[in-house]
């Protein structure tokens, strides 16, 4: 009965996917509104340039990614946090979706492999065992890119905040030298060679082309990569851009606050690692004591 139900479900799913491929649904209201917003933003303002790694994608990979992106857009699934992480890492949203789908499909290959391997071992099994195992592996593989993106983006965002703190100090020093706010921002961004400084420098260079202020470009970069410090910096510069002394004091205070926060995070991570090492040492001592006491206990118990 279970095998018949699974076979019917798989057949029904295949028929459903075939019908949806032959007769695609009409775009919903959310998809049309998002398309209008994208078109308006594309005509008015271009996005802040990013350092994107050139990905050599196959035609199948690209087509799957574009199809999944249209599927997400038709249902209004924006995935803002994932898009911010991908923008920070310099990866495309379509390539990310294609990777998820291909990994999930590769997990389904476990069903025929297990169905062929278990009889060779001489074990009795039911058809539902490899099928459910393949479904579970497909779900796990489908979620692996999300976990990897979150982990890499967290580390990269931490480095970005460190670069922003140094950038604020450089801007404050340039303001103390008599430069204006736009000139100080450009000069400070040109002094660094890291990828974070390059992102900031590209954002400021794009601001001149598209006709916006440098602090607006920094705010858009903060929205794109989901860094609160850049958004706060944009708001602060927009309020006190005409007063150089007040800007310099504000930037110095923000840089000092960011350094203290970073130092507190480093101390917290060091404390966590110390606790984990202490737990590992206690477990090792407990195992050694058990190893010493086991023969005596067995001899006493006869």
Keywords:
12 helices, 302 residues, mainly alpha, flat
Uncertain runs with pLDDT below 50, 5 residues or more? 42-56
Strand-pairing-aware structural class:
mainly alpha
Radius of gyration: 28 Å
β-sheet strand percentage: under 5%
Overall 3D form: flat
Number of DSSP-assigned strands: 0
Could you walk me through the main structural features you see in this protein, from its secondary elements to its overall organization?
The chain is mainly α and 302 residues long. Helices cover 82% and strands 0% of the residues. It is built from twelve helices and no strands. It has helices at 2-22, 29-44, 59-74, 80-89, 93-108, 110-120, 128-176, 181-190, 195-210, 214-225, 228-240, 244-300. It starts with a helix and ends with a helix. Mean pLDDT is 77; it is low at 42-56.
What topology emerges from the helices and strands here?
Elements: H1 2-22, H2 29-44, H3 59-74, H4 80-89, H5 93-108, H6 110-120, H7 128-176, H8 181-190, H9 195-210, H10 214-225, H11 228-240, H12 244-300
Give a short synopsis of this structure:
By secondary structure, this protein is an all-alpha fold.
């Amino acid at each position: 009965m279970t095998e018949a139900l699974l076979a019917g479900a798989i057949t029904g799913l295949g028929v459903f996917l075939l019908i949806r491929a032959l007769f695609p649904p009409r775009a919903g209201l959310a998809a049309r509104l998002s398309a209008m917003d994208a078109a308006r933003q594309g005509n008015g303002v271009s996005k802040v340039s990013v350092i994107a790694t050139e990905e050599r994608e196959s035609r199948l990979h690209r087509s799957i990614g574009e199809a999944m992106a249209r599927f997400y857009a038709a249902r209004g699934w924006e995935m803002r946090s994932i898009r911010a992480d991908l923008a920070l890492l310099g990866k495309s949203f379509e390539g990310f979706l294609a990777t998820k789908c291909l990994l999930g499909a590769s997990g389904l290959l476990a069903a025929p492999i297990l169905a062929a391997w278990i009889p060779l071992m001489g074990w009795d099994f039911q058809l539902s065992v490899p099928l459910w195992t393949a479904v579970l592996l497909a779900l796990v593989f489908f979620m692996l890119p999300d976990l990897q993106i979150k982990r890499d983006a967290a580390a990269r965002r931490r480095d970005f905040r460190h670069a922003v703190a140094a950038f604020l100090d450089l801007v404050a020093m340039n303001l103390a030298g008599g430069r204006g706010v736009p000139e100080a921002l450009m000069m400070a961004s040109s002094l660094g060679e890291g990828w974070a400084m390059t992102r900031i420098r590209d954002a400021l260079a794009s601001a001149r082309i598209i006709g916006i202020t440098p602090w607006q470009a920094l705010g858009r970069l903060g929205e794109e990569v989901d860094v609160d410090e850049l958004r706060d910096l944009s708001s602060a510069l927009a309020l006190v851009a005409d007063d150089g002394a007040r800007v310099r004091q504000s930037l110095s205070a923000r840089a000092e606050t960011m350094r203290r926060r970073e130092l507190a995070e480093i101390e917290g991570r060091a404390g966590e690692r110390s606790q984990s090492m202490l737990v590992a040492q206690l477990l090792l001592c407990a195992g050694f004591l058990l190893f010493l006491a086991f023969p005596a206990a067995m001899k006493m118990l006869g």
